[in-house]
Input
Amino acid sequence: MVGESGSGKSTLARAILRLEDADSGAAFWKGQDLLAMSPAALLGVRRQIQMVFQDPTQSLNPRMSVYQLISEGWDIHRLMPDRSERQVRVRQLLEQVGLSPEHASRYPHQFSGGQRQRIAIARALALEPELIICDEAVSALDVSIRAQVIALLDDLRERLGISFLFIAHDTGVVRDFADTVIVMKAGEIVERGPTEQIFSAPSHPYTQRLLAAALDPDPDVQAQRRLLATAQA
Output
């Protein structure tokens, strides 16, 4: 999902999980409207849909160890009561996101931004979700670290079969990662379709301007985008 700042991307993501109240509409998950669910039913769905936020510094409680952060969901959903089993699983999850099992006893402030985001991903994976919503999950990271986290998400998608709703303003990252693209402007979806179609032949003038403003390593592609956007202006 792409769009300029203030287009409603994060609001939509938070509304899907009922972290914000929607004024109207519906959001269907497996045939059920998330916006009409009772709190008890929604709790069960939240095991299936997890979220990774933009800033892990704010989303990870600094007073909790990595072990506590990753295992907290099991307490909420009354899963895995055996402590030794939890310790094994936490170590596995840390390894799965490219961290060391020894990191379980440390606290968020002892890690870099990229490492904290890996902890947030491990926390999301702990409940074995089917969908992870990544709300600008790499935008605050350095370019090299961003590429590493994207590669991690792509590997998890391939190995675990997890789907991602990936929210970003960096169209280059979206082009490399996404299968389908949704374009938002002023709280509305103005265009959607397969990634290659959106990037090679955008139909909405806003999408054309958005892509024209993004840099492309191929100068011919960049020139063509700007020419198209100018013609539609």
The CA atoms of residues 49 and 131 lie 5 Å apart. Strands lie at 28-29, 32-33, 49-52, 131-135, 163-167, 180-185, 188-194. The longest strand covers residues 188-194.
